[in-house]
Amino acid sequence: MTDTLTGVSRASLAHLRDWVAQGKLSTPLARLELQARGVEAETARLLARVLGELSREPLLAVLDTLIGERDRAERERPRLLWTGPEAPGSAALDTRVQLLELISGARESVFWAGYRFTDKSLLAPLYERMCTTKLDVTMVLEVRSDSKDRRSREQRIDATLEQFRAEVWTWTDIAPALYIDPRTAGWNPDPEHHNGGFYAQMHAKTVVIDAEHCIVGSANFTNAGTTRNIEAGVLLRSRDFARTLLGQWRGLIANGLLRRVGE
Fold first, then answer.
1. CA 20 to 30 Å from 177, out of 49, 127, 151, 256?
2. Residue 78 in contact with residue 213, Cβ under 8 Å?
3. 176 has a pLDDT exceeding 90
4. Does the domain formed by 79-261 have CATH 1.50.10.10?
């Protein structure tokens, strides 16, 4: 039934529901009566054919379900996030504005993984929110390493934490739980790799707020990444997708593939 009525607008369904609820339309629905209320002929014929056997209460229940499904689909419709120059008429949303808005409104939890965190002003709203609301906050950081870096893995990890706390998360009274991918801290021997091993990066840029709102995109959490560079991302409000995305990360944590640091 939902598929059959796909071409009927949400507004038309809402008008139909109001007319039935207010007694302005009798049931079962009749094509001519619908047309008399201004419904286009083809739409009236479709509504009468699909819904015409329902009495008042079942019809209202079906219409409530259909309207609810349309509202959910609209809420969960992916939105394009964009940083950088845009052509006239762009429908994209501003990456920085949406990120700050979501963080400032967090109620329960924030999961935030990023390749680069250098803009303290992006994290300030999270700190302020943590001061007033009990939030479960987890962040995943990248540890920089390359063949020219002679420091040990632990030294690189310590340096990453020191820089993060000195330049980005400078507050000392409260802090998120911090994780790293241990592979990013140095060379990873692997006899099956053509070079005998590899360097890895924690290159994901992901935010999940309240296990419902998700941002996934190319932008680093830097001033340039959220104001100047050309960056694209997706804003999605979907508990199903959020659970799937969080499940990926939590699976890494549960299996020891991400390591808690800075405790």
1. 151
2. no
3. yes
4. no
Cis omega before residue 125 (within 30°)?
no
The full set of domain ranges for the chain reads 10-75, 79-261
Distance between CA 173 and CA 129 in Å, rounded?
A: 13
Indicate the pairing of strand 177-180 with strand 259-261: antiparallel
3-state secondary structure of 259: strand
Interatomic CA distance for residues 41 and 34, integer angstroms: 8
pLDDT band at 2 (very low <50, low <70, confident <90, very high): low
CA 225 to chain centre: 18
Q: CB 32: neighbour CB atoms within 10 A?
A: 9
Cα–Cα–Cα angle for 84, 89, 94, rounded to 5 degrees: 35
The counts of H helices and E strands in the chain are: 9, 11
Question: Partners of 14 in the beta sheet?
Answer: none
Contact at 8 Å (CB) between 100 and 231? no
Cα gap 81→236, rounded to integer Å: 10
Average pLDDT in the 177-185 region? Answer: 96
The SS3 of residue 260 is: strand
Residue 31: which H helix or E strand, with range?
helix 31-36
Question: How far is CA 69 from each of CA 65, 206, 224, 247, rounded to the nearest angstrom?
Answer: 6, 27, 39, 25
User: Full-prediction pTM beyond 0.85?
Assistant: no
Supply the pLDDT for residue 147: 76
231-256: pLDDT as tens digits = 999 999 999 999 999 999 999 999 99
